[in-house]
Design goal:
The radius of gyration is 32 Å and the shape is elongated. By secondary structure, the chain is an alpha+beta fold. A six-stranded mixed β-barrel has the order 3-4-11-7-9-8. The chain has a two-stranded antiparallel ribbon with strand order 2-12. The longest helix is centred in the N-terminal third of the chain and has 40 residues. The chain folds into two domains: about 200 residues, no CATH class; about 200 residues, no CATH class. Helices cover about 50% and strands about 20% of the residues.
């Protein structure tokens, strides 16, 4: 056994004449454990909300989305786009056009996001699982066009069974004539399909309308084009591998976006929140580790005679210091492992039984209990963080204390 490790274990676990040293060492260990537990629970909670939002987006959004690298739209008959839509790992592909528009309903203009989709949209997305109402997902019958609004837009329209809804956009490349604005505006009429969808995300639920792709193309004066190609992958296909293959096929003129990149702003905000939470909790862990300095200083003073004996026997200053540094690491290790175990146990209990409820247990939330998701990378990061803190916070103070004892 290593010289320093042997004495570190002996000093830490042997009975001491001073109970205060035992108590302070125990408090230091528990401080490290509590800080570690907090890191595990908070980071797992933030992961849970991130995964929850990701699952909600997945219900409406495709596995992969192809958009133009420059500009808003691209030609649907582009050979590269057609190859991407028929790749061997693609289960279904759907073209869509998405842009802003203005609706006029009962004299009240409202800006909406209009998304025109083709007949394959139902195969690519989970729209059928999001629909509510007496109607179905019908966007066109003969020459009549229908729209499926989001829940928030349906409330503004007085329901999903609206009639003769006018949707307007400025004509391409034309300035609005204020004296006769109707001359420079394209508009179409649309009826409600009797159903609406709810994703439980503000981006979609407030002012979103689904319509037929041909209607959107005529309204925006962009026939034969689309703003995005939405792809559903076959079961077992790797998202990352498929994304790389498609990007190589399409080249720099297009961007292939995965689920996270399709909502980059939202996930960036959540990553920043997680980073700030991690930094704040590391600061608290740093304060908890400061108690190690006091515990080890008392230990050094208590073992003054032993240190003198070891120096007489030929132990160098580095070897003596190594004993107490290893004690600090041992206390930190035990506290960290204890905190990790308790944190993982609490996360398991919360995930299994949902003890911490949202909104007092009412049905106003998407989930009834705080979601948690434990990531192995976070556990490794927490372990390394605590061990590094335990070493850094004690190394220099111990060096100065041992020097003063030697003198």
């Amino acid at each position: 056994m290593n010289f320093g490790s042997f004495f570190a274990r002996r000093y830490l676990f042997s009975k001491k004449n001073l109970r205060a040293i035992n108590l302070i060492s125990f408090i230091s260990m528990m401080g490290v454990a509590v800080a570690t537990l907090a890191l595990v629970c908070i980071l797992s909670g933030l992961n849970g909300f991130k995964d929850l939002i990701g699952s909600l987006f997945t219900a409406f959004d495709p596995d992969l989305k192809v958009v133009a690298a420059k500009g808003k739209s691209f030609a649907m008959d582009d050979a590269r786009i057609r190859q991407a839509a028929t790749a061997d790992f693609v289960e279904a592909a759907s073209f869509s056009t998405e842009d802003h528009a203005l609706i006029l309903f009962r004299g009240r203009p409202t800006v909406i996001t209009l998304k025109g989709v083709d007949e394959n949209f139902r195969r690519v997305s989970g729209i059928d699982s999001l629909l509510t109402g007496t109607g179905d997902f019908t966007l066109r019958r003969a020459s009549l066009y229908y729209g499926v609004p989001s829940v928030g837009l349906a409330e503004q329209l007085g329901g999903a069974d609206f009639k003769n809804l006018e949707i307007c956009v400025p004509q391409k490349g034309e300035r609005i004539n204020l004296s006769r604005p109707a001359d420079n505006i394209n508009y179409v009429e649309m009826n409600g399909a009797g159903s609406y969808f709810q994703v439980r995300q503000q981006k979609y639920d407030n002012a979103y309308m689904l319509c037929d792709l041909a209607l959107a193309d005529s309204l925006y004066e962009k026939p034969g084009t689309a703003t995005q190609l939405e792809l559903r992958l076959k079961a077992g296909a790797s998202e990352s591998t498929s994304q790389k293959k498609l990007q190589q096929l399409l080249g720099s003129d297009f961007r292939v976006l995965n689920a996270y990149q399709q909502h980059e702003d939202t996930y960036n905000v959540m990553q920043i929140e997680k980073l700030f939470a991690y930094g704040f909790l590391v600061f608290i862990a740093l304060l908890a580790c400061l108690s190690l300095v006091g515990a080890l200083t008392l230990q050094i003073l208590h073992k003054r005679d032993d240190i003198s004996t070891l120096r007489t026997l030929g132990a160098g200053e580095g070897q003596v210091r190594g004993i107490f540094v290893r004690m600090a690491l041992l206390i930190t290790l035990i506290g960290t492992l204890l905190g990790l175990a308790l944190g993982l146990l609490l996360c398991f209990v919360q995930d299994r039984f949902g003890l911490l409820r949202l909104g007092g247990g009412t049905d106003d939330f998407i989930v009834q209990a705080y979601p948690v998701s434990v990531h192995a990378g976070d556990i490794l990061l927490i372990f390394i963080t605590m061990m590094v803190l335990g070493f850094l916070i004690t190394y220099w103070p111990l060096r100065r204390t041992i020097k003063s004892v030697d003198s």
